């Protein structure tokens, strides 16, 4: 079930709900991306510091820990501006103002194909720009 | 003579012209006949009186005037007359026209005293002179008419005073019997009235919240808002309505609905403000709980849908064919629906582990006593409960297809415990067919091995022992309620 054209970009999946995380990691992996998984923003920060192949952040908003997904997204935009940010949440009322510029929002439960397609577009433009 | 009251013991009020009638008492000679003829000629009604007792009764009924001969005054029952005169109300001074016996000089001291007791008497000498008599009677009746007029005014004033008193008493009774606190202010908003309920509720001394003192009873966080709203009403005349917290005598703040409206005169000028405070604390608290409940419900529904989404995604991802996928999905969704039925029936806030296990196994029980269950009544969080339900469902489904539940006499022993703040949950299958590890990992085993441990922040061991499948979850005690 693995995609033929594997990407050089790795995706960091941040989700506190174990089942959702497992499924997200599975679907992104199936699409040919290398994945890293974290159950909190703190864990995610540690992973992105140690792994420079991470090109996409795919994060939930409402999570336990010192910061939530929106704060995490803001930190990563600041420290790793080239990382693309995708945010998924069941929270209603998330506006563009509270999300880092250029990031995308998906409401939960999300359509997997849409997210995979967006990730592939990001990966493709990254390949070209290199 | 029509229109005159029947004499005797009647207590009925006399007709109006009775008050301008003259009682005539002249028992001897022709005086009575002459006098009454003269009066009748001049249109003055008269009543013939035969005794002082009868006269006393007429006086008690406020007769207009009395024409009496001096000798009649000395008749029997002179005391009754004196009593009747004494009993007259303050406005009444019955005029007597006394037909005298000769001149003052010839009158005995006793006779003079009798005339004095009448207090308001004129003497007319006999023989009667027609004009003298009529003038004397007329002026007496005119003066008597004034007395009756004064009496009516006095009675009217007394009635109004009584009505005012009754109205005030009625207001107090109403204002103090309602459940609401009621208050009133001058047009500028100066509080000068609070009903008893206000003092009962707040427990403050009467009068201590007059003027602007009332604001101190408000919750500090609501004072400014309430003032602002009140000032707005005072300046615009618009009705006042606001919810705020008021300090109860117990010291607790309670939610109250405050309302007020102005009473205007015919020019539209505000005369007073009348307001009320209604205790809505219980309603407010119930509303907050309902909000919390709705929030929690929304959260759980979304969570459930997310789970269903994962199950669909995972089932299809690993399915050999659509028919199998359909069966698995339907049974998984049915399991979740049942779990919800059972879990929500107990309580929204907390879930007990025995309930969870029972609910998860419900669909797999055959009535043959294949499950051996043992564990204490522990509280689990809603997420952990759902994850555990899913795990047990997957284990049961697997056992029915390949494990101990697929063979006659096969059993499952389920045990859990919490010791030294470590929670363990085990599932051990016995007396089933020989077990070998699966060639392909399905959603069930992945869910159990990867996801379940995460929900409890613990670790999971799943071993395909040839004698029967073993599953064990170990987690910190705190993991049950993450």
Automatic annotation (TrEMBL), chain A:
SMART domains named in the record: REC
A Pfam family matched in the record: Response_reg
Alphabetical keyword list: Phosphoprotein
Domain of life: Bacteria
Tagged with keyword Amino-acid biosynthesis: no
4-aspartylphosphate: residues carrying this PTM: 60
Domain Response regulatory: 10-123
Transmembrane helix among keywords: no
Endpoints of the signal sequence: none
PANTHER family registered for this protein in UniProt: RESPONSE REGULATORY DOMAIN-CONTAINING PROTEIN, STRESS RESPONSE REGULATOR PROTEIN 1
Name this polypeptide is given: CheY chemotaxis protein or a CheY-like REC (Receiver) domain
Species the sequence originates in: Sulfitobacter litoralis
From TrEMBL, chain B:
Keywords, comma-separated and alphabetical: ATP-binding, Chromophore, Flavoprotein, FMN, Kinase, Nucleotide-binding, Phosphoprotein, Photoreceptor protein, Receptor, Repeat, Sensory transduction, Transferase, Virulence
Entry keyword Repeat: yes
UniProt EC number: 2.7.13.3
Domain PAC: 240-292
PAS domain boundaries: 167-237
Reaction catalyzed: ATP + protein L-histidine = ADP + protein N-phospho-L-histidine
Annotated coiled-coil segments of the chain: none
Pfam families referenced in this protein's UniProt entry, alphabetically: HWE_HK, PAS_3
Database matches in PROSITE patterns: PAC, PAS
SMART domains linked to this entry: HWE_HK (SM00911), PAC (SM00086)
InterPro entries linked: CheY-like_superfamily, HATPase_C_sf, PAC, PAS, PAS-assoc_C, PAS-like_dom_sf, PAS_fold_3, Sig_transdc_His_kinase_HWE
NCBIfam families xref list: sensory_box
Protein name: histidine kinase
Species in which this protein is naturally found: Sulfitobacter litoralis
């Amino acid at each position: 079930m693995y995609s033929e054209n594997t990407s050089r970009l790795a995706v960091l999946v941040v989700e506190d709900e174990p089942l959702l995380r497992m499924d997200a990691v599975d679907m992104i992996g199936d699409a040919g991306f290398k994945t890293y998984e974290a159950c909190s923003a703190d864990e995610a920060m540690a992973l992105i510091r140690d792994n420079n192949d991470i090109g996409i952040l795919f994060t939930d908003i409402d999570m336990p820990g010192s910061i939530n997904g929106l704060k995490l997204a803001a930190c990563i935009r600041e420290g790793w501006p080239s990382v693309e940010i995708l945010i998924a949440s069941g929270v209603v009322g998330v506006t563009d103002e509270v999300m880092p510029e250029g990031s995308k929002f998906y409401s939960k439960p999300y359509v997997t194909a849409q997210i995979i397609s967006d990730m592939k577009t990001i990966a493709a433009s990254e390949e070209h720009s290199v | 003579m029509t229109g005159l009251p029947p004499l005797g013991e009647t207590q009925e009020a006399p007709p109006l012209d009775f008050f301008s009638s003259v009682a005539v008492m002249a028992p001897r000679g022709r005086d009575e006949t002459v006098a009454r003829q003269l009066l009748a000629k001049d249109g003055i009604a008269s009543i013939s009186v035969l005794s002082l007792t009868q006269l006393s009764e007429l006086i008690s009924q406020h007769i207009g005037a009395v024409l009496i001969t001096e000798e009649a005054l000395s008749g029997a029952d002179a005391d009754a007359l004196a009593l009747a005169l004494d009993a007259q109300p303050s406005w009444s001074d019955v005029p007597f026209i006394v037909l005298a016996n000769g001149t003052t000089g010839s009158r005995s001291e006793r006779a003079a005293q009798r005339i004095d007791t009448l207090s308001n008497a004129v003497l007319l000498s006999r023989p009667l002179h027609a004009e003298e008599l009529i003038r004397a009677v007329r002026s007496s009746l005119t003066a008597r008419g004034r007395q009756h007029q004064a009496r009516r005014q006095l009675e009217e004033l007394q009635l109004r005073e009584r009505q005012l008193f009754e109205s005030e008493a009625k207001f107090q009774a109403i204002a103090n019997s309602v459940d609401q606190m009621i208050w009133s202010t001058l047009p500028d908003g100066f509080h000068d009235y609070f009903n008893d309920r206000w003092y009962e509720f707040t427990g403050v001394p009467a009068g201590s919240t007059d003027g602007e003192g009332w604001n101190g009873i408000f919750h500090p966080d609501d004072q400014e808002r309430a003032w602002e709203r009140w000032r707005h009403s005072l300046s615009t005349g618009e009705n006042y309505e606001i919810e705020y917290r008021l300090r109860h005598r117990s010291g607790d703040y309670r939610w109250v609905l405050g309302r007020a409206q102005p009473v205007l005169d015919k020019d539209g000028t505000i005369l007073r403000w009348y307001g009320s405070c209604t205790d809505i604390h219980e309603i407010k608290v119930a509303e907050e709980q309902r909000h919390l409940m709705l929030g929690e419900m929304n959260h759980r529904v979304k969570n459930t849908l997310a789970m269903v989404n994962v199950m669909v995604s995972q089932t299809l991802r690993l399915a050999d064919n659509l028919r199998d996928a359909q069966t698995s999905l339907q049974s998984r969704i049915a399991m979740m629906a049942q779990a919800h039925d059972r879990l929500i029936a107990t309580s929204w806030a907390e879930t007990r582990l025995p309930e969870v296990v029972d609910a998860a196994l419900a669909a797999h029980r055959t009535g043959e006593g294949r499950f051996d269950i043992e564990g204490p009544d522990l509280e689990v969080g809603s997420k952990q409960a759902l994850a555990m339900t899913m795990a047990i469902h997957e284990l049961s489904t697997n056992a029915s297809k390949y494990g101990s539940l697929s063979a006659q006499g096969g059993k499952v022993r389920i045990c859990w415990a919490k010791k030294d703040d470590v929670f363990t949950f085990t599932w051990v299958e016995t007396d089933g067919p020989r077990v070998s590890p699966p060639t392909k990992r399905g959603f069930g085993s992945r869910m159990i091995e990867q996801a379940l441990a995460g929900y409890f922040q613990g670790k999971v061991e799943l071993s395909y022992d040839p004698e029967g499948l073993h599953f064990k979850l170990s987690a910190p005690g705190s993991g049950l309620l993450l």
